[in-house]
Amino acid sequence: MAAVQETVDRVRSIDVDAYKYGFVSAIESDMAPKGLNEDIVRFISAKKEEPEWLLAWRLEAYRRWLTIDEPKWARVDYPPIDFQDLYYFAAPKTAAGPKSLDEVDPELLRTYEKLGIPLVEQEILAGVERPRVAVDAVFDSVSVATTFKAELGKAGVIFCSFSEAVHNHPDLVRRYLGTVVPATDNFYATLNSAVFSDGSFVYVPPGVRCPMELSTYFRINEKNTGQFERTLIIADKGSYVSYLEGCTAPKRDENQLHAAVVELVTLDDAEIKYSTVQNWYPGDAEGRGGIYNFVTKRGDCRGARSKISWTQVETGSAITWKYPSCILRGEASRGEFYSIAISNGRQQVDSGTKMIHLGRNTTSRIISKGVSAGKSQNTYRGQVSAHRLATGARNFTNCDSLLIGSECGAHTVPYIEAKNASAVIEHEATTSKVSEDQLFYCQQRGLSPEEATALIVNGFVRDVLQQLPMEFAVEAQKLIAISLEGSVG
Amino acid sequence: MTAHVPPRSTAETTLVRQFEALKAHADPPRRAAFERFAAQGLPTRRVESWHYTDLRAALADAAPLAPSPARATIEAARALLAGHEKSGAARLVSVNGKFAPDLSDALPAGAAIASRERRDSGAEDAMASLVEAMAPDSLTVDIVAGAELAGPIEIVHLAVGEGAYALYSWIEIALGAGASATIFETFLGAGSGVQRQAATRLRLGRSAKLKHAASIGDAPELHLESQLVELEAEAELNAFGLVSGGALTRRQIFAKLGGEGAKIALSGLTLLDGTRRADTTLQVVHAAPRGVSREFYRAIVADDAAGVFQGKVVVAPGAQKTDGAMKSQAVLLSPQAQMNAKPELEIFADDVVCGHGATVASIDPEQIFYLQARGIPKEEAEAMLLEAFGAEAINRVEDEALAEGLRARLAVWLAGRSRTAAKEARA
């Protein structure tokens, strides 16, 4: 019964305080004036010393944004957002951009250390070689540090902040920016296009298998600040990259907006594996505060036999509105989506995926596990469509929901659209509660009700956890236990 | 919510004019129903439950209302009925939405045609409300508490007329506590210019049991049918629908399991060819504990046809111990055939077991190969597999005589298809 012991340890190791990333770092910030107008867009662009074309692109997006309405179709409910009451740019004050890690504000480094993200390039620790992960740390609106750049450079991999990429690799940025998620895509993506501040940029050259995991860590620190980061990952022919994303924010009573855009492009035979552990501050038990996480993530399998795989563990945010999708354009390309969405308290989750089969013999797989507890609402919303030319398209979807407590809700809204007779689409969904029998069985063997629930939930989500890179899987399991705290009894 | 209110379409304007001309203002329930329709208008893709069927766009204009049946119409109806085999013990006939007592049989003991005053159904759906407002009649069949009807009742909806016309029919069937009955609705006679809208309200009292089936085999331009189902405690409904005709068909079932321990089993088979469109939309609401619901729908889609299945199972707060399972399966027979499915679960109670499954595929080549290897020609093998696929849905019908009739309809449709296929092959 090793598994049981592991779970018990895991549950014990959890802090008393459920959300342990809720602290605020005392770091002076450089902020744009509150509100949003063309001058703010120009201000952000000027701060980043951007070329003229990018400013024009931002301004066009801003003007477009003014003409469109917020999407209302999702099963989430929140008071109207005052977009003029936000800061659109906040950056930790530094004399000049740090040239190396040694120049980074020590307070910042301490913040990341507290979050469990070492920004120091540790080579070998106590004689044991640990898997190394290159990190791009984004603090409020700017990227503060990127580790292992030199070593990645040797392999030809470009991994830097978006702002650096605009300066150092303008051709690549210009060629791919907005080609997967156009500036006019939807309300939040358009807003992001106008005011995006920073994010990560990755380019993996042809035939290169990225030598280490890449990761980005987002932290919102300032009050009343919206975070709008933009990530662009390009895997050129025959390359492979695994990318991890994590996020946290301090506890505050006000809601904060996070509207990110992630674009992935894979060319022939390339593969991107994108994993997210989303742990933004979810608000307190009464639903005060928390992050509004309105994110547009999309991958474009442009090349033949290319593959994009999304794995997400969603435990944070007051509201999640997020549909990582795959456009399967290349022949025999493949899209995968593995998701665990856990909601507790008054969290609202409306998340899922889209698999758009355009090319021949494209395949996709969707495994979604939703767990709702407390007074939360958890919706899976997904679309699988096989277009006219997608001969031989194949999809398998499985979404299961687990309910804990009688005041929560779990919903499933899949759209299945087949326009090609040779397409085979299968969808199955189930909803059930943690069975009394299972709980009884575990409790009889000495587990507390909470430990028993955590154990059962871990079993329920195992299919997805297995898809996560090692380091993340451990963190994710702990997170699951934390977010379910207080859900039993 | 910023409601998007488009300007009135031609069809909507015509409908308003037609309703005004009906002089139904004096009738408050009809007025209220029309206002409910007018407030929503003809549904577009923007209405989530009409995501795959844009009725506003499909309905260029509302056809003129069918006139109240005159003697000649009744005689024409009698001739039509002569060619239709009676499938129940007693037959009720409605001509162009108006009950025709001359053509109808006496009901068996325990059942009676009630002449109740029309009362507002309160139906929320725009199209069911439109039927309630426009229907010239409201045929009401009451089955008294405890009655067990000797044989099935068949209700024949006849369309009689020339060219383009619209007809509306509103039927109410109420079963008292503990009553049991079998009712079969057949839609007959509509040609290509006919816009037919029908609504049937099925109300089952405590422990009442109803077996219901509907069949649409004629060829109207539009067939839009709503079933409004209310089940009290321990009541059981088994309802089936066969769609084998109609250019644009939509069957929508709104069922509410209002009493504890109610059971509902919905099933259907849709056969689509040519450029036809058929939509099945279900909404099953479990409003009380211990309810059981089963939905099982199959579709065979050929040529350039397109099918839609939308099924939503809602478990309201407090409806604990609900057991719901829904399945939708479609076979596509040609490269142009389309199927859209949206099975939904909306669950607000924790102690439930709910699931749904949906598949879309073509005929399994391995199964064809298996049969061919045993000497069966390809076309025949296909027909056998399709017949079996369809029959699995029909098997859900509990009344054996009814099921037999439906299987025959499936066989006729498949034979018609293979004849066209053979003709095309020769050409």
Characterization of the model:
The complex is a heterodimer of chains A (489) and B (427). Chain A has 489 residues and is an alpha/beta fold. Chain A has twelve helices and 24 strands. In chain A, the strands form three sheets. A ten-stranded mixed sheet of chain A has the order 4-3-7-9-12-14-17-20-22-24. Chain A has a six-stranded parallel beta barrel with strand order 13-15-18-21-19-16. Chain A has a two-stranded antiparallel sheet with strand order 1-2. The N terminus of chain A is likely disordered. Chain B has 427 residues and is of the alpha/beta class. Chain B has two domains: 293 residues, no CATH class; 65 residues, no CATH class. Helix content of chain B is 24%, strand content 37%. Chain B is built from eight helices and 19 strands. In chain B, the strands form two sheets. In chain B, strands 2-1-5-7-9-11-13-15-17-19 form a ten-stranded mixed sheet, with helices on one face. A nine-stranded mixed sheet of chain B has the order 3-4-6-8-10-12-14-16-18, with helices on one face. Chain B is globular. Chains A and B meet through strand 22, strand 23 and strand 24 of A and strand 18 and strand 19 of B.
